[in-house]
Each structure stands twice: as structure tokens, then as C-alpha cells.
Design goal:
Blueprint (H helix, E strand, L loop, with lengths): L5 H10 L8 E5 L2 E5 L3 H10 L9 E4 L9 H17 L2 E3 L6 H9 L5 E4 L13 E4 L2 H10 L1 E5 L3 E7 L14 H12 L8 E5 L1 H4 L3 H9 L8 E4 L3 H9 L19 E6 L6 E3 L7 E3 H4 L6 E5 H4 L2 H11 L2 E2 L5 E5 L3 H9 L2 H8 L2 E2 L20 E4 L15 E4 L2 H10 L6 H4 L6 E2 L1
Parallel strand pairs: 2-3, 2-5, 3-4, 5-6, 8-9, 8-11, 9-10, 14-16, 14-18, 16-17, 18-19
Antiparallel strand pairs: 1-7, 12-13, 15-20
Length: 431
Amino acid sequence: MAGQTLAEKILSLRLGRTVEAGDLVVVPVDLVLAHEGTAPLAVERFRALGKREPSVPVLLFFDHAAPAPRRELADVQRALRAFAARYRVHLHEVGTGICHQVMAERWAAPGQVIVGADSHTCTAGALGAFAIGMGSTDVAVTMALGENWFRVPETIRIDIRGGGKDSDGLPPGVTPKDVVMRLIGLLGDDGATYKALEFGGPAVEAMDMDGRMTLCNMAVEAGAKTGLCASDGMTWSFLTEMGREAVFFPLAPDSDAEYERRLEVDVSDLPPQVAFPPSVDRIRSVEEAEGIRVDQVLIGTCTNGRLFDLRLAARILAGRKVHPGVRLLVAPASREVYLRAAREGLLEIFVRAGGAVLPPGCGPCVGVHLGVLGEGERCLSTQNRNFPGRMGNPEAEIYLASPATAAASAVTGEITDPREFLRGKGEGCEE
């Protein structure tokens, strides 16, 4: 029998028997997550099932509208607090951060099966977990039964190489966000529907967990069911840093695993990438986007609100000023990231540059508060989606880019190649 992909191996381990792509299986689930946007319906359905207690640990997050910007949202959160107290649900209050980041820091582990009422639950695949998004009703069933059915997905193997002859890392000024946007440009926004994207190759092996989470976070933007990275030394280092090394174990695909297809991506000459509205797969090089004026720049979200991202943005913004026609918003992905960024002086750099630092959470990404766009405005954002209305106004435009490109563009007032800034040659509005 052929070897197993990561998706097949994790589900086989969880079931105690061998499964392969295409099998229909009922799998025990380790963790369930929901946030204030998706939890109300899940709670309603769970109660309708008449269960006295959830059959699996449930994690509830206030991150999409936190603090609550309107009375009706405050009432939703009040009701969910009561539910959490009644059913011993693990409640993550306002200010804790985005569910996907906090999951990685506190909860997710290699070999787990995780179900979330949010499509970007796949972020936890960076730790070697089979993590998928489901609808609120399916999540309620999982809460009640502690299991759910899956079709074991076929896997597309993505081998990423680059950095030049002497390096397996990424070229200067190019980030994991640029790599995954390039991949989505190749696959299209439905090119991996219900597949698992398994990321590997020298560039991924050299990538830290922040970068791997960016890859897995955006797997769903190509239609994938989940994104996965092997559990290795980088995983152990991250879990150790979080004080959770006890949950680590190595987990990798078999060398003779069978894939639906293999795609090798050489990023040694890759320039920074930009996704044009209205869809994430409209990918262009930064050179093709240079000169497009922006009104707002957002650095943060579950895609790029981690410490690596903030450090990179601060490197560009240090000693410079945000362009007078631009609003710069910076939203750390979690309280842990916020505190570490504060200790390193990164938040002071953003504020002195003229930016606004937001509470840990989703912020303006979903268009609820803290940065809704005006009619005809244009935002360059590090988030993962740019369809019309995503940031609260269907008459506005959203471009997607890396934290480096976003920071450079905040200084110049237009989409700008960050590599000149990182070489110390950026002009910009200096202090």
C-alpha cells in the first residue's frame, strides 16, 4: 500500500485505522471553535439538540467586533457569556485576540482534528493539525456528538524552493504572504476545492511558524478544505516558546505518499505580489501595481498580524512618517503578540510614524468597526479577502499585499515596492 499524505495520516491516527483519500469517515474531534459572528446560530442549534453538555472542548472568542461597536452586538456577546458560563465553554474575552492566532498559541497541537465555525480555521494546519471550517449547524452537531463526518480529501503537494543558490529561504523583501498569493494566482480561487494543500520543500522547512500560519491561513482562498505543514523542529520551537512543548510530536507525510498532483514553486526570482480587487486570485507583481493611490493601509488580521509581520513593518516605518493622505491602522493578532511588540518598541514606532494601533482582534477586516472604508476609497491590506464590501463598503476597493509592501505604501501614499526601503534607499516622508 502507498504511503500517506499528512491529511490521511492525521485522520488515520485519530481513527486508529488506515484511511485514504475519498473515504467517508466519522472522526472524533479534539477542539471546536466559534466566534461572536458564528456562535449564535451554533448555540441555537446545539440547544435544540437537547444535550446537557458539549461532548468536546468548545472555545468561544470575541474577536470580530471587540469591543462591541453597537448595542445589538453587545447583547449578542452578553448572551454568549451566559452560554459559556452555563456549559463550561472556554471563553476568550475582548482583547484576547483573533481566534486562529490564539488557537495556535494556546490550543492547537500536531495530530489534532479541529472544527471551527470560521473558514480560516485551517490556520492551525501550520502545526500539523487537520483543521477545517464548517457551517454553524455542523459545528453545533460536533459540539453535541464530539465527532463529525468527513470525506478524506485528496492532497495537492506544494513544494516551495527559492532564495537563490546559497539559500533555501525567501528573497529579500519577499514574504510568505507573497508566496501564497503567487500560488493562489496559479491555482485560482477554486483550483483546490475540497483538497488539502500540503506545503513543503526547502523554503517551508526554513520558514518559522508565523510564515507557515500565513500559508495555511490562505489555503482556503484557493478553495482548499485545509492547509498543512509537517510537525518538525520549527513546530517544537514554537510550542516550547508558548510553554506547550509537551504536546509536540513529529509528524510528516510518507516519502511515497500519493498526491492528486504536485506543484513546485520556485520563488528565487519572485517579486512582492499584490492582489487586485475584486478577488484574491487577481495577482500581479508589485511593479504592475506601483503608483496606485491608497487612502488606508491595514497591517494585521489572522493572516499577517503576527510578530514577524509587525517587525518587518516597523523596520520600514522606523524614522519615517505616514503619508499625510493615508490612514495607517495596525492590529496585533493577539494579546501575546501585542505585549511582545510593545516590549520590542514596535508599537511606539507605529505611533510615532503616525499610525493608529488597534486592540488585538480582527479590527476592520470584516467591515464591522475600527476602519470601515468610505465611498470610493481604496485600502491596501494584509488580510486575506478583497471582495466588494469586505471592509464595510461595496463602493470601496481593497488591494492585498504583504506587511512590507503595506508599510512602504503607507509612507509613500501609493502602492510601492518595499525592497528599496529594505535596502535603505526608500525616499518616503522621513521625520
